[in-house]
Amino acid sequence: MRLTNILQLGVKELRGLARDPMMLFLVAYAFTVAVYTEATATPEALNKAAIAIVDEDQSPLSARITGVFYPPYFTIPVRITPTEMDRRMDAGLDTFALDIPPNFQRDLLAGRSPTIQLNVDATRMTQAFSGSGYIQSIIAGEVRDFSRRYHSAASEQVDLDLRMRFNANLTKSWFGAVTSIINNVTMLAVVLTGAALIREREHGTIEHLLVMPVTPVEIMLSKIWSMGLVVFLVSCLSLVVVVQGVMAVPIQGSIGLFALAAALDVFATTGLGIALATLAGSMPRFGLLMVLVLLPLQVLSGSLSPRESMPEFVRTIMLAAPNTHFVTLAQSILFRGAGFEVVWPQFLALAAIGAVLFAISLRQFRAFLK
């Protein structure tokens, strides 16, 4: 194996990528526009949720409850009758319909436990889940403050002192931006390497390589280092320029340590890309195969939901996936400021998985060339 062959073949791959406008657009979009939109598209809090109120009590307490719902969290409440409530919900005019029953204030002051009905349009999922909690907390606070005026000997309650670590303001865009980069590193490493191999076959240049004094290992390593270098540099640039610069997301840990983790993940996933390309053989098949492979890898890696909430057998199987360890590494480093002494087991696992994937892909690549 000659390093000059690997270097020159890799430069050839970079020139081929530079002449492919669609791939260049994909790389640029994945680490700029996609990162920004994924982080900011979903509202961080309830925003202008439509609410209607049926006030059957007509008391000072019901008026007080009605007056606490205002923009920007909610639209100005619409007062409706009980007969209008179902019709407006069916028509999609209201996300929330609050029904305050008759004698609500009187029953509360008498020591009873009156009930307020909250109807929620669950088809509006984001507002339904977060908004119902908002409304419950708002009403509970107003009822508690109102009751204290009439019951001086109110029972002492235990206060829960919340301290949000790593994201004190619960800014969702901070998490979304970094997670987008983590996922796109895996996706682009697989796509670029696999597409480079298939492009050789479709253009007929793979036969030219076979008659040259180069080995399969040199061809494969040239594709890995060239496409991996593109993903590595663009991901680091996106983290500094887009995430830290444009979006002003504070990074807690070492960017250099994250770059080392990204390099290991790129090494592992580029081998996976070559293996998938040898199985597919053509670009349409490669695209379909990526859907079957990349989607489970990203959904079950822990980037979108905690791995602890997944079934035990899923967590065990996903330990063989390189991006599972990369997600753990990246989140620990960038969000929690972890050092190498904390994340070295994930580094070791990622290096081992990369070596295994490289051996498997090399075997398939040799069979692919025959």
TrEMBL record:
Main subcellular location: membrane
InterPro entries tied to this protein: ABC-2_transporter_component, ABC2_TM, ABC2_TM_bact-type
Membrane topology: Multi-pass membrane protein
GO molecular function: ABC-type transporter activity
Transmembrane segments: 174-198, 229-249, 255-279, 286-304, 343-362
Residue span, ABC transmembrane type-2 domain: 132-368
Location within or outside the cell: Cell membrane
Family: Belongs to the ABC-2 integral membrane protein family.
Name under which the protein is recorded: ABC-2 type transport system permease protein
Lineage per the UniProt record: Bacteria, Pseudomonadati, Pseudomonadota, Alphaproteobacteria, Hyphomicrobiales
